[in-house]
Amino acid sequence: MVTKKELYKKYCELIKYKLVNKNRSIPQNTALILIDVQKGFDDPKWGQRNNPQAEKNIAKLLTAWRKSNQPIFHIKHNSVEPHSPLRPEQSGNDIKDIVAPLPGEPLITKTVNSALIGTNLEKQLRKQKIDTVVIVGLTTDHCVSTTSRMAGNLGFTVYVVSDATATFDRKGYNGKQYSAKMMHEAALVSLQNEFATIIDTNTLLATIAPLSKRV
Q: Using CB atoms within 10 A of its CB, is residue 199 exposed (0-12), middle (13-18) or buried (19+)?
């Protein structure tokens, strides 16, 4: 019996083969979009979280993008909910230090789940002739998923990095409790092949190295 872990490993190997060995690496002008990596998500109010290493993986990708001079967009959620730690006047609204924007890197604010509604993100992507995006951040089943779905519907080629995203436990409409791991995996499965290619950090980094040499 093949385990889920073994199947996922084979899937990642297949993606890596397609991207690297077949010279189908991500395009030179691929944007890294960091969704809502904000301090407010450390608040205990959100409950249990999965992928505690997500921010470190995001930082690895951010470093690789900077070294290869690829476009980067930081997205920040300005919550309109009265008690949210992500409200603009709260310290939790700040981007986490590990992935804080450098001077000159675009920082786009939003008030809804999608980074493509009520912002100029799509306009900036079109202006720079970007047709491929890599999406990371928080949370997998809310803002990451919504942005990925819309980007796919708008015609962008979308990659979502499985271990550079994370979410929290959720209570369902039926009163059942769903673990963060379950919510995370279900969100990625829903995106896979329909809206995005799901990839992990190491596989993606292997495709960035050849790009760095061409800069």
A: buried
Tell me the β-bridge partners of 165. 137
Q: What is the pLDDT of residue 133?
A: 98
- Is the C-alpha dihedral spanning 192, 115, 137, 77 positive or negative? negative
Domains in the chain, CATH or no CATH each: 41-71+113-214 (3.40.50.850)
Q: For residue 135, what are the β-bridge partners? A: 33, 160
Residue 11: which residues within 8 A CB-CB, separation 6 or more?
Answer: 198
- CA distance linking residue 37 with residue 100, whole number of Å: 9
CA distance 97 to 21: 36
- Closest by CA to 131, choosing from 160, 154, 148, 104, is 154
pLDDT digits (tens, 9 = 90+) for 94-141: 999 999 999 999 999 999 999 999 999 999 999 999 999 999 999 999
